[in-house]
UniProtKB/TrEMBL annotation:
InterPro entries from the UniProt entry: KIF6/9_C (IPR056524), Kinesin-like_fam (IPR027640), Kinesin_motor_CS (IPR019821), Kinesin_motor_dom (IPR001752), Kinesin_motor_dom_sf (IPR036961), P-loop_NTPase (IPR027417)
Protein name: Kinesin-like protein
CDD domains in alphabetical order: KISc
PANTHER family: CENTROMERE PROTEIN E, KINESIN HEAVY CHAIN ISOFORM X1
Pfam families listed in its UniProt record: KIF9 (PF23735), Kinesin (PF00225)
Organism encoding this protein: Sphagnum jensenii
Family that this chain belongs to: Belongs to the TRAFAC class myosin-kinesin ATPase superfamily. Kinesin family.
Domain Kinesin motor span(s) in chain numbering: 9-341
Residues annotated for ATP binding in this entry: 97-104
Length: 677
């Protein structure tokens, strides 16, 4: 499990509204966080009147709160979640219940009485208290406030004078965003409260028989908190969200007397969205493959809170009277389902490129100082870790050319920047910048000499001349005036080996995977003192009789097998491309032969439409195959290079083995190999 990731269950709390006429059917156990409801039912009795009996329903929650103390509610339900958000986790606090059960009072409270503040102002106070007490964290806070009213999403913090309209929901990579949403930066608690009160004024309220200030919309207040984790790790930035959701209450029209037109429509929209929310929770509980988050705006906004990267708390508000017993049972059943849901919350870190760059620059300086100190202690005071200048490169190039022409010895070429790495009993010299530059310059000289040699050999007919590049119109096919060069010829186009290749020098012989045709300067001293037959026999002995040779030979064969598969796949793609081109030309010819079609000729129009559709399909297949061929061609070149590297490594290992045996046995190579044979 990654650092900071945790599997957590949604916490569910029950808050009961104080009532002068509590129901005798409700029994609360705050210690065990359980609620028992005694429901009177009737059972049919054969041959007599229905018989009454009592059925008990038991609900298990995380806590049961019957107090009116707002601080107790905050400490029990929301305080720990706010602390988690300050540590970098996403968090959501929702209130759910019937109309008039105290949801808005729980979230907002009575702002006229300080002690009656709800969860929202108390969470604000904790966030900005953290911001003031820890200025080194660089905490930045933004807030947004939206409401879902009649399946429309409206911004409650938009600038005055702008036209009010429903926001559009965008989903990308599983994340939900609102296009055009206002995110206001806030510096202190007073600014946040001011914006919150302005948004409250724009909320949709109405009065009915159960509540004089009934919320007619679902509201979501979100705080976006960005902070740095410390001074020494300024590159670690966490970005967290705290969603405070005040859901509208489900209601029955016959109990609220909402017979007016707009109130009835609002009640229908609220109940519909809450029904979709319950269906979504039920689908998440069953673990279905498809979760209907998009059924309503509310479930889309709560997608991450219910089943994503978030820690969620649900506060169920209920009215403990007999008149609302059915609504209370329904709310508790919903809470029981939500309690079974689990989310995966992680600390949300943001990549700070500026901080990362500063950290890397600091590490480079410290490493250079450490290397300079180590070199000074070991006596290597002339070592430099800076980039080579052009003058230094020119001087090295001149020394290499002199070394190649035997005017200078190898010791006269400076090799200063290196360190030794031990692996078993073999020591490898891992060269640094200067030695890498030397290798690059050696490669340039090698390529130049090889080009000149191939040119001379081609003039004397010893090797075939280099192939000319194909003309512009020799690609696999053209499509609408654009030529494409595939670069892989068909099998019958391979040139036959010239006869001159059969006349090899006496010192050249094929040995399975390569030819031993190296010059004297390319191998250790003493190897070329024996005949080519003995060298080749020794090569076979090394390749088949030593563990190192067998391993390298197995790697080469594996890569060659992979190369054959990729070449075969490339030839298949070439055949597909050629076939597509032929079909494209045939379809174009048919379209051209039909000429101009009369508008009233429906049959011909249908045939032409079919041909055009076929042509577009063929072109799409052609381009797809061509792009795939380019990818395969890159893979083929990479595997070819791996095969070449493997062969060079095999020969290098063989010459080291051959030279070591001849040196430490104290006898001539031919006599030694003869005794081995």
């Amino acid at each position: 499990m990654p650092h900071g990731e945790c599997q957590c269950r949604i916490k569910v709390h029950l808050r009961m509204r104080p009532s002068s006429k509590p129901s005798a059917a409700l029994h609360f156990d705050e210690t065990k966080a359980m609620v028992r409801i005694d429901v009177q039912k009737k059972q049919s009795n054969v041959g007599g009147p229905p018989r009454s009996y009592t059925d008990q329903i038991v609900f298990s929650l995380d806590s049961v709160i019957q107090t009116t103390n707002q601080e107790t509610v905050f400490d029990s339900c929301a305080k720990q979640l706010v602390e988690d958000v300050l540590q970098g986790y996403h968090g959501t606090i929702m209130t759910y219940g019937q109309v008039g059960s105290g949801k808005t009072f729980t979230m907002t409270g009575d702002m006229k009485v300080y002690a009656h503040r709800g969860i929202v102002p108390r969470a604000m106070h904790r966030i900005f208290q953290e911001k003031e007490t820890k200025p080194e964290a660089g905490i930045r806070v933004q807030m947004s406030y939206v409401e879902v009213y009649n399946e429309g999403i409206y911004d409650l913090l938009q600038t005055r004078g702008e036209p009010a309209g429903s926001l559009m929901i965008l989903e990308e990579n599983g994340l939900v965003e609102l296009r055009g949403l206002t995110k206001m930066p806030v510096e202190n608690e007073a600014e946040a409260l001011k914006l919150y009160f302005e948004g409250e004024k724009l909320r949709s309220y109405s009065d009915h028989s159960l509540n004089q200030m009934s919320s007619r919309s679902h509201c979501v207040l979100t705080f976006y908190i960005e902070r740095r984790t410390g001074i020494r790790t300024l590159q670690d930035v966490t970005v967290a969200k705290l969603n405070l959701v005040d859901l509208a209450g489900n209601e029955r029209v016959k109990k609220t007397s909402d017979y007016r037109g707009h109130l009835r429509r609002e009640a229908m929209a609220i109940n519909k969205s809450l029904t979709f929310l319950e269906q979504t929770v039920y689908a998440l509980r069953l673990g279905q493959g498809y979760i209907p988050f998009r059924q309503s705006r509310l479930t889309t906004l709560l997608k991450e809170s219910l089943g994503g990267n978030c820690k969620t708390v649900l506060i169920v508000c209920a009215w403990p009277e007999d008149y609302f017993l059915d609504e209370t049972i329904g709310s508790l059943r919903f809470a029981q389902r939500v309690k079974l849901l689990r989310t995966t919350a992680i600390i949300n870190k943001k990549l700070d490129s500026a901080g990362t760059e500063r950290r890397y620059a600091k590490e480079i300086i410290e490493l250079r100082q450490e290397l300079a100190l180590k070199d000074a202690l070991s006596g290597h005071t002339r070592i430099s870790y800076d980039e080579l200048t052009e003058e230094a490169k020119t001087e090295l190039r001149n020394k290499i050319e002199a070394f190649i022409t035997d005017e200078k010895e190898l010791d006269q070429i400076p090799v200063e920047n290196f360190r030794q790495v031990s692996h078993s009993s073999i020591k490898y010299h891992v060269v640094a910048k200067q030695v890498k530059e030397l290798l690059c310059l050696f490669k340039e000289a090698h390529v130049s000499i090889r080009t000149q040699l191939e040119k001379v050999l081609a003039e004397y007919g010893l090797i075939p001349p280099p192939e000319e590049p194909p003309p512009e119109d020799s690609g696999v096919g053209e499509l609408e005036g654009h030529g494409f060069h595939v670069g892989i010829a068909p099998l019958d186009a391979r040139p036959e080996s010239p006869a001159s290749l059969g006349q090899m020098s006496p010192g050249a012989k094929r040995c399975g995977v390569t030819m031993l045709t190296y010059k004297e300067n390319d191998v250790p001293e003493g190897v070329w003192e024996c005949s080519s037959d003995i060298r080749n026999d020794a090569f076979l002995e090394f390749k088949n009789g030593t563990e190192e040779g067998q391993q390298q030979e197995a790697i080469i064969k594996s890569k060659e097998g992979e190369l054959q598969i990729k070449r075969r796949y490339a030839r298949d793609i070439c055949a597909t491309i050629n076939e597509a081109k032929k079909e494209i030309q045939g379809v174009k010819k048919l379209i051209k032969e039909r000429g101009i079609i009369k508008p009233d000729d429906c049959a011909e129009l249908e045939k032409r439409t079919s041909l055009l559709t076929r042509l577009r399909s063929l072109k799409s297949a052609y381009h797809k195959a061509y792009n795939e061929l380019k990818t395969v061609k890159v893979d083929v070149e990479a595997v070819q290079q791996e095969v070449r590297d493997g062969k060079e490594m095999l020969l290098e290992s063989f010459y080291g083995w051959f030279h070591t045996l001849a040196k430490y046995r104290g006898q001539e190579t031919e006599d030694f190999l003869a005794s081995v044979a």
